[in-house]
Amino acid sequence: MKKIFLFLSVIWIFSACSSDLDLSPMDSQSELNYWDTEEDAQIFLNSIYADLMSAQDYLYFNALSDDAYTKAMEEYRNIASGSYGTANGVVAGVWSGRYEAIRRTNIFLNNINEVEEITEDQRTALTAQARFIRAWHYFNLIELYGDVPLITDEISIEESLTLERDDSGTILTFIYDELTTAINGLPSNYPADQSGRITKDAAIAFKSRVHLYNGEYEMAATLAEGLLGDYSLFPSYADLFKTENESANEILFSLQYIPTFREHNNQYSLIPPSLGGYANFSPLQELVDAYPTINGYGIDEPEANYDENNPYQNRDPRLSATIIHDEYTMKDFEGNDIVIGTSPGDEPDGLNYSSNSTPTGYYVHKFYDPMARNQVNSGLNLILIRYAEVLLNLAEAKIELGTFSQADWDATIGAIRARAGLQGDALVFPGSDQNLLREIVRNERRIELAFEAGHRFFDIRRWEIAEEVLNGWAQGIKTDDSIVDDGYIRVDERSFDPAKHYLWPIPLSERDINDNLTQNPNW
């Protein structure tokens, strides 16, 4: 895929779009004389891959949960705090971006049969990739907005202004049909120069996720179980997120980047000022507290032997693999060991030391790329689907079905914890109590998948616990000079109204031009 992405320099041809749903016809060059060769089809398909998820949304959707806070991305911050409306830029941008992407997949699917210089096997594989991507977009749309227009063909601007919302259940059926077709048409692997494309197993894993999100646990478990043994957990959790391990067997599907040609600048928002960063995305204390001690006990349990005065000692190793905390030792861009101080007064990285430093007392290490150009422009791939998620899907589905066993524990949560470096009781099957197992798997998802593709954002909504975790103060580190009784820095006061916030509103800009679009409750 990295080689194929060299074709992306021409995707501007396909980017001309109207406002709103971006459903205007393609320009005459594309419609009349573009679809001739396999290269034409590949270039167009590559532009569709680029639509899957922006690096910005990949990161900042996590700030819409109880895991992180953003101080400068106001539109995201307003969603997290519950103080947003129908004109919110993220709400409108995600809607229009997804429909722009759907329009391009529809154009591709309408024209792929016009390409004569291609084998039928190639045509089938290319079509299957586009169907996966279209299903991906519709899944995100119904998760965020509920009922949305279902568009499977190119339509005119005039037609786009009369669209109505289709029932989300109808769209879910469409998603399943698309993914079934994709699975039947996708190859299991690709030549080395096409690594990064959607495979059959990636589609199976994604379909398992969709079934899990919709409470269809039998099918979610069956699909996930079918992938057991074909993949493995990478030996080092911390090293999995490094450029040199982008082809690890654990990774089923990633957003593809390549240094100097296609990069993202997420790193600028994650790393300390001493490394050239600006703390625009900061982990919250609530996430830090979710990491157990190394024996698997929560920090509020007596068996944990947690020391609040030494809060980062004897903890789940995934904490330090993910989050930069006070007195954190790491490598700088020259490979030298440095110590990051995040306490108040620590120059230049301490809590609120400057406008560039952390408002919570934490930075992010998980995606740290020491090879990044200019320290912040990174070609590191961003993982969308990996085997650990498949195992967690399987575990959660079987727990909800009441069939989770010792063998299931060993194959899923036990294996994930062992890879992370947990010890002792952390690896012992805790028994069949469903509530306890549910608590364990939900916390494992939170810490194992932290900051990846907005998993926590979607999880707290499908579990319907958002009103529990997004009401009240989001907090940072404990300090001696805090005026708050418990000593933890108050970062952002949040409010989540379950009567309205489980669905985003239909954007005002869309309803202004199309009054057939009804609004979600209480917006």
TrEMBL record:
<protein>
    <submittedName>
        <fullName>RagB/SusD family nutrient uptake outer membrane protein</fullName>
    </submittedName>
</protein>
<dbReference type="InterPro" id="IPR011990">
    <property type="entry name" value="TPR-like_helical_dom_sf"/>
</dbReference>
<dbReference type="InterPro" id="IPR033985">
    <property type="entry name" value="SusD-like_N"/>
</dbReference>
<dbReference type="Pfam" id="PF07980">
    <property type="entry name" value="SusD_RagB"/>
</dbReference>
<keyword id="KW-0998">Cell outer membrane</keyword>
<feature type="domain" description="SusD-like N-terminal">
    <location>
        <begin position="44"/>
        <end position="212"/>
    </location>
</feature>
<feature type="domain" description="RagB/SusD">
    <location>
        <begin position="267"/>
        <end position="523"/>
    </location>
</feature>
<keyword id="KW-0472">Membrane</keyword>
<dbReference type="InterPro" id="IPR012944">
    <property type="entry name" value="SusD_RagB_dom"/>
</dbReference>
<dbReference type="Pfam" id="PF14322">
    <property type="entry name" value="SusD-like_3"/>
</dbReference>
<comment type="similarity">
    <text>Belongs to the SusD family.</text>
</comment>
<feature type="signal peptide">
    <location>
        <begin position="1"/>
        <end position="18"/>
    </location>
</feature>
<keyword id="KW-0732">Signal</keyword>
